[in-house]
Design goal:
Layout: E1 8-14, E2 17-27, E3 34-42, E4 45-53, E5 59-65, E6 68-77, E7 86-93, E8 96-105, E9 110-117, E10 120-129, E11 134-140, E12 143-151, E13 157-163, E14 166-174, E15 180-188, E16 192-200, H1 234-243, H2 263-286, H3 292-304, H4 318-331, H5 338-354, H6 364-385, E17 396-398, H7 401-405, E18 418-420, H8 422-445, H9 447-460, H10 465-472, H11 490-495, H12 505-511, H13 520-541, H14 550-564, H15 569-579, H16 587-605
Antiparallel strand pairs: 1-2, 2-3, 3-4, 4-5, 5-6, 6-7, 7-8, 8-9, 9-10, 10-11, 11-12, 12-13, 13-14, 14-15, 15-16, 17-18
Helix pairs in contact: 1-5, 2-3, 5-6, 5-8, 6-8, 8-15, 9-16, 12-13, 12-14, 13-15, 13-16, 14-16
Amino acid sequence: MRWPDGKTYVGMYKKSLQHGYGVLTVPRKDGLTKEVYDGSWKDGKLHGYACVRYSSGDFYKGYFKYGLREGHGILEQGKFVSQAASVFVGEWLLNKRYGYGVLDDIRKGEKYLGMWKDDMRQGPGLIVTLDGIYYEGTFTADKLNGSGLMIFDDGTTYEGDFVDAGIGGKGQMTLSTGDVICGSFSGEWSKGIKINGVFNKAVAPIGGSPQKSPTHGLPSCFGTLSMSADVKWEAIFEHCRESLGIRVNSKPVSGKPVSKPDSKRAWENIAVITSQGRQQLQIALGNGLDSPSKIKAQIEVLEKLARILPHNQSRLSLEFYQEIKAYMALAFRSPAHPLGRCLEALVDVYRTTYVGVGAHTRLLYHAVAEINSYVVRLYDLVRILFPVLPSTEDKVTVRSKKAQCTSEGEDYDDGDGELVTAQGLLHALVLPLVYPTLFTLYVLHSETEDDLYWERISKWNKQSDIALMTYLGVEEKFWFADLDSNVFSPESRSRLPTVYEQYFRAAVDTLQHLSTTFCPSEKLNVIYRAFQELEKESRVRVSEDYLWSMDDLFPVFQFVVVRARIRHLGSEIHMIGDLMERHLQFGEMGIMFTTLQACYFQIQHEKLSHYS
C-alpha cells in the first residue's frame, strides 16, 4: 500500500490495519532520509519482534508492545568515526531501559554491565574503561555508592566504600607490589586520594602455580557484587519460552518456567512459527529485501524443520539422540525457529558485551560464567521439546537399539555408547559462534605467561632434533628411525646433528590442530590423537610391545609441544580447564591434559642457560 505522502507498507493486514509481518517505510520531509519499520504488527502498531531504522541514523532491533519498546532489544545511537557512538543491549519497559543491560559508550571509553531502572544505572553492576580500570558494586541514580571494588590496570585493588562514584569511607587498598593499606579513604583516583590508615608490607610468595584462574590474586568479593550470570538476559529466554507456548511469570525468580512444560503444545507452536517464517521469507524474496541466495537457503532450512520429531519417547536410544543433535543443528541455525532466534540474540549480546572496551582481562570470569549459564538454560529449552533427555544433574549413557534389546545377563558391547550431557549437546553449536570473542579474553588473561613460553620455544626451536631431545632429557632409544638402526654406527651418529623437525612429525602435526578447534571436547580429542601418534612411533623406534612410563613419556611429549609451536598454548589450556566436562577430568583424557599442562609450566620455568 502507498499513501499520498510517499509512505509505503508491504505486508499483512487485518481490519484495514497492519497486522502480522510487514515493512513500513516513512520518508522524511527533507526527502533525503526515511524511517523503516520491519517486523510484527498488531492493530496498526509494532508488537513483537521488529527492526527500526530511524531517520537520525539510530537503529533498534528487538521487541515491542503496542508500539513501545518492551522486552529485549538493542539500540545503536549516534556516530563516532565509522561506528555507533553508543550501543545499549538489554531489557526495556515502556520505551525505557529497565532490567539487566549493557551500555557501550565509545565516546567515554567505558562499558557498563548491570541493572537499569527508568533509563538510569540502578542496582548491582560493573564498569570497565579503556584505561584498564574495573569497578564493581551497587549503583544508585547512575553513580557507584556503598560497598564496591575497584581494580586498576597495574593490579592495584581497592575494596571498600564509595560515595557518588568516588572513594569515600573505610576500605583496604592492595598495591601491585602486594603491600596493603587499611583505613579511611576519600577522593578520586585521578585527582588524588587522602588516606588515614595502616601500611602492611607484603611477604614474598613462595613457588608458583601451573595455571592461573580468572580470579587468581583478586579479592574474594570479585564477581560477587555484580549480577549473577544465571539472571542475565532472562528476557531473551522468556521470549523463547513464550514462543514455545510456555507460560512464565512477568518477573521470573529462578529462570525456570512456572508451569509444567507441554511438549505437544511447543511443537504445535514451532510448526506455526516456522510456517510464518517461510511466508515472511517469501515476502522478503519477492520484494528484494535481502540476498536471494541467502533467503532461499533459510527457506530450505525451514522446510527441513517442518518435520515434527517424536517427543513422547519413554527411552532414549543412541539413534534418536543422533536425530535430536541433527535437528538442533538446523534449529539453532535458523533465525525463524524460536531456538535459533534465542541463540542469535545470545550471540549478539555476548559480542556486544565482550568486544571493544569489553575486551578486558577482568571480564574473563564473567564471560566464562555466561557461557556455562547459556548452555544450561538452552538445554532446559531443548528438554521442553525432548523430555526424554536427562536433566543437567543426571548422567545417562545412551546405547544403540540393538544393545538395549539384548537380553538381560547377556554381554553385548556395541562400542558406540555416548554420555548425554548439556555440554556434549550444545558446546559444538554455541562455542564456534562466540569463540573469537571468548578466546580474545583468554589471550589477554594469559598474555604474560604465553609471552614467556613463546620466547623460550622460539629459542629451543633453533636447535636440531637431537640437540633439543638431549636438552629435554629424551632417551637415546627414541632417536633412531627403526629397529634396525645401530646406535653405535658412526654413519648414523654423524647424520643425527643435522636432522631437523623429522622426529614425531605425525604427533606434532596432530597437536597443531589444537588451535583449529572450538570446543574443549574437540581440543581434548586432538591431545588424545597426538598421544596415539606418539605411541605408534614409539613402537617403531623401540619395540612393538613398548609401554610408556611417565619418565619416558614426559620429555618426549614436551619435545612434541615445543615443535608444535602453538602460539597461545596457555590460553588454550586455560579454556579447556574452565569449560571441559567434569567426567573428562578423570581417566585417560584427564591424564593427557594434565601432562600438557605440566609441559607448558615446565617450559616457562626451564633454565635457558644452554641456549641464551
